[in-house]
Specification:
This protein has 2 helices and no strands. It has 102 residues and is mainly alpha-helical.
Length: 102
């Protein structure tokens, strides 16, 4: 009966070894699947992130150009108003004389 028990124990050890090997292979396969999924997700994220950054940069550049254009227009209009305004040189000179020579 001892030989039979040894055979049973030996068989159980073989089954346990096979199960351990199967679990190890499954873990390796799962790790590969997870790594592949992570790589794919990161690649997709980078693509989407680049698109969003590009859109934001384009929008900001357009806004900057619009602000520069508005500034140029405002300065130009201001200069035109100054050039069109009536100048009182005699009154200005009289004021300067009163400030500096009084």
């Amino acid at each position: 009966m001892a030989a039979e028990e040894i055979d049973i124990i030996q068989h159980l050890l073989e089954v346990e070894s096979e199960a351990s090997q199967m679990v190890s292979e499954a873990q390796t396969k799962a790790d590969k699947i997870i790594a592949d999924a992570k790589s794919q997700a990161e690649a997709e994220f980078k693509i989407q992130y680049s698109k969003v950054c590009e859109e934001i940069e384009k929008s900001e550049l357009n806004r900057k150009n619009q602000i520069l254009e508005n500034r140029k227009k405002s300065i130009s209009e201001y200069i035109e108003r100054l050039d069109a305004s009536e100048k009182d040189f005699a009154g200005f000179n009289k004021y300067l004389d009163s400030v500096f020579y009084s």
